[in-house]
Structure formats: C-alpha cells, structure tokens
Amino acid sequence: IMDPYVPPEGDARLTSLSKDGVKQQMQKLRQTAASQLAYVPLCLGKAGIWGEKQEFGGEPRGDRGCFLCSFNKQKLHSLVTERCYPDMVRGNRYRTIRWRFLESLEPPRVVHVRCDSVMNRGNLYGQVTVRMHSRQILAIYDRFGRLMYGGEEIPKDVLEYVVFERYLVNPYGTWRMHGKIVPEWAPPKDPIVKTVLIPGPALDPSQEHE
To answer: Can you tell me the distance from the alpha carbon of 137 to that of 152, in angstroms, rounded to the nearest whole number?
Structure first.
C-alpha cells in the first residue's frame, strides 16, 4: 500500500461539536488536500473515480463475502489483487464461513487517493482508501460444525478502511480490493475459540470397538 492512510483516532465516535472532533476535521482537510493532487492522473488514466465510486461500497463488495464463503477462486481473483488474496483465504480451507451484510450506517466515503508509477513513469497504479461503516453478521465454524467466532444472530457495527487498486494503463482494468488499514487505536478483535478433538474411550487392544 503506497502512503497508507492514517485514520483519525476516535473516528465514528467523536462529534463535530467536541474539541477533539474539530481537531479531527482539521486533520481531515489536510489529508484531503494531498489526495486532490492525485485525482488528475487517476482521471487521465480513465480510472473514472467519480463515475465508479459506487463500486467501492456496492454489490462487488458483497460479492467478495459470498465468493469467500463458497471459496470461488476464479471470482475472488477478479475482485481482489494478488497481494490481498492470500490474506483472505489463509486458514479457511477447512472452515465454514457465514457472512451477511445488513446495512450501511454511513455512506462509503473516499478518504485517501494516491497515484504512483512502478518500474517506469508510464506504469501507473492508482490506490483509493474507502471508509466503510456498516453492520454485518459473521460466524465461523470449524470442520466439525462447531462455532469458533461470532454468531449468525449477532450483528456487529464494523468500521473499515479498505484500499482498492487499479492498473491505470489498462483501459479495461477494474478496481480490486488490495488490503485494509487497521488503526493502532482500533479495539482488539474477539479471540477465536480453538476447538479440539474429543478423545474417544480407551480400548483394550484385544477388544473391538462397535
């Protein structure tokens, strides 16, 4: 992630009327000024950030959750970058994931835009950080069907800073999820309950087990 976005501390908790809230708004203005400089190369690269911004928080994002639950590799590769794919599927091979998007608590908002070249000046990549505040349901089961994390009846408010990337040289390229930014002040996630194999009865070698 080029020049990672630094989320303001207390985001989604502070009001604009409080002292810390006003300070947060001033910091937001400074970060926005730097992002404005990157809008021009993005538009020249036919990225169409303003015309395609609905893709950041719309159906493609929900599809990522559905395709991850079903482990559809082909669809996932079309929606996430090569850097993001291993992070999404690592450790989930023998697990069952139940995920559901309920509602957006706030409209998705572009908070950070960067454009840079790789190897040479003409090889341009664009990255956009989108702030998403939504309500979701997530439950993870082990291979024996025992609940390891979350619950299908427990909705949670989730604040995410998702980075999308696009190869600007390709006129048919699409925005793909590239990673997430986790702020240092974010509360720790609930631990995953580690399940173990229940030992069977101790048998005498001369006995047969029914």
So the answer is: 6
Q: Which residue has the higher pLDDT, 77 or 207?
A: 77
| Rounded Cα–Cα distance for residues 65 and 138 (Å) | 10
* Residue linked to tokens 């390709």: 170
Q: Sorting pLDDT into bands at 50, 70 and 90, what band is 190?
A: confident
Kindly report which listed range (41-45, 77-81, 86-90) carries the lowest average pLDDT score.
41-45
In a domain, 163, yes or no: yes
Residue 31 scores a pLDDT above 70: no
Can you tell me the mean pLDDT for 181-209? Answer: 75
Q: How far apart are CA 134 and CA 157, in angstroms?
A: 6
Looking at the DSSP bridge assignments, the partners of residue 138 are: 99
List, in order, residues 6 or more apart from 78 with CB less than 8 Å away: 174, 176
Task: For 85, list phi and psi in degrees, rounded to 5.
Answer: -55, -50
CB 181 within 8 A of CB 5: yes
Q: Pinpoint the alpha helices (H) of the chain.
A: 19-44, 54-57, 59-70, 73-79, 84-89
**Distance separating alpha carbons of residues 128 and 106, to the nearest angstrom:** 18
Q: Which two tokens stand for residue 17?
A: 């009327």
Number of domains the chain is built from: 1
21 is written with which tokens? 């809230």
Residue 192 lies in a domain: no
* 202 located within any domain: no
pLDDT above 70 (res 159): yes
User: Is the confidence at residue 194, as pLDDT, over 70?
Assistant: yes
